[in-house]
Amino acid sequence: MQGETYYSVRMRASQNGSHEEGGKHISGGERLSTFGGLKDAVNALLDKGLSHSRGKPDFMQIQFEYVDDPIRAIHPLQIETNDANSAEDGKALATELLQQAGVPGDVIEKAFRRIDEFSEVRGAVLFDVRSGKRVDERKEKGVRVSRLDWPDADFREWAAKRGVPLNSRMKEALAVATKVCGHPAVIAELCWSDDPDYITGYVAGKKLGYQRITKMKEYGDESGCRVFFVDGSADLNDCISYLEKKPLFIQAGGEPWNCH
Ligand code: WAQ
Ligand code: MG
C-alpha cells in the first residue's frame, strides 16, 4: 500500500430531495481507492445506495478526491458477539458495556433519552462523558467518519481465520469502530443500524473491543444511531478532523489499534 496514490470516494443518497433540502437519508458510504480501482469503488457505492432497504433514492452524490497524506494501516478491534433476546435486553447490555468502557451511568441514560433525536442525524453524534451533552454542533449532519477502508482480500482472510461470515455490513462497522476508537478522546461508541432489516448493533471501546449485540431494535424499525462518547476536555476539533480526514486502512497485519 505504501507509495501508492489513493483517493477518498464518498457517496450519500436520499429520498424526497437532497439532504440539504430535508430529504430522508437512505444510505452513505466511504472507500479508499487507487486510481485504477476507482471504477469498482464508485460502482460498489452506487449499488449500495440504489438497492437499499430504507427506500429508493431520488438524490445521490458520489465524489472522489486525491488523498494527500500517507496512509497507515491498523489492526481491527477484537470482536465478540453477545446474544440479546429482546431490544430491551440489548439496550441493557449496551448500557453495561458502555459503563465497562468508562462512560458514567447517568451520561448513558441522558444519551438514551435523546436517542430519537440522534437517530435523525446522518453521521455520528459526539457526546461528552463529563457534561452529558452533545458537543459536535453539527445538527442533522453529524460527523461522518471518512477516508477509511478495509481491503477485501485482507478482510476475507481475517474472517476465514475466525470462522466469521463474510458480512460486508460488519466489515464496514468494524472498520468505523476501529478508526473511531483509535482517537485518544474517544471513550466508547454505541451504534445500531437505521436499516429496517438489520437489528444487530454494537458497543466498542479501546479495551472492550467490538462487542456485537444481536438485538437492539425490532425488525421494521427505521431508527438507528451512532454515538461517540468522548472526553469533552480533549481537543475535539482534532478529534473531528481525525474522524473525517485522517486516511486509514484496516488490516489484520497492521499496527495495533491504539495509535493515532
Ligand atoms: N460515520 C459516521 N456515522 C455513520 C457512518 C460513518 N461512516 N456510517 C453510518 N453512520 C451513522 C448514520 O447516522 C447512520 O444512519 C447510522 O450510523 C447507522 O448506519 O453485525 O449498518 O450503516 O457487527 O445503517 C452494526 C452491526 C451495523 C454490524 C451498523 O449502520 C454487525 C450499520 P448503518
Ligand atoms: Mg443505514
TrEMBL record:
A biological process (GO) of this protein is:
biotin biosynthetic process
Query: Which cofactors are required for activity?
Result: Mg(2+)
Question: Which pathway does UniProt place it in?
Answer: Metabolic intermediate metabolism; pimeloyl-CoA biosynthesis; pimeloyl-CoA from pimelate: step 1/1
Per UniProt, which keywords does this protein have? ATP-binding, Biotin biosynthesis, Ligase, Magnesium, Nucleotide-binding
Q: Name one GO molecular function term.
A: 6-carboxyhexanoate-CoA ligase activity
Function statement: Catalyzes the transformation of pimelate into pimeloyl-CoA with concomitant hydrolysis of ATP to AMP.
Subunit (UniProt) = Homodimer.
* Protein name according to UniProt: 6-carboxyhexanoate--CoA ligase
The UniProt gene name for this protein comes to bioW
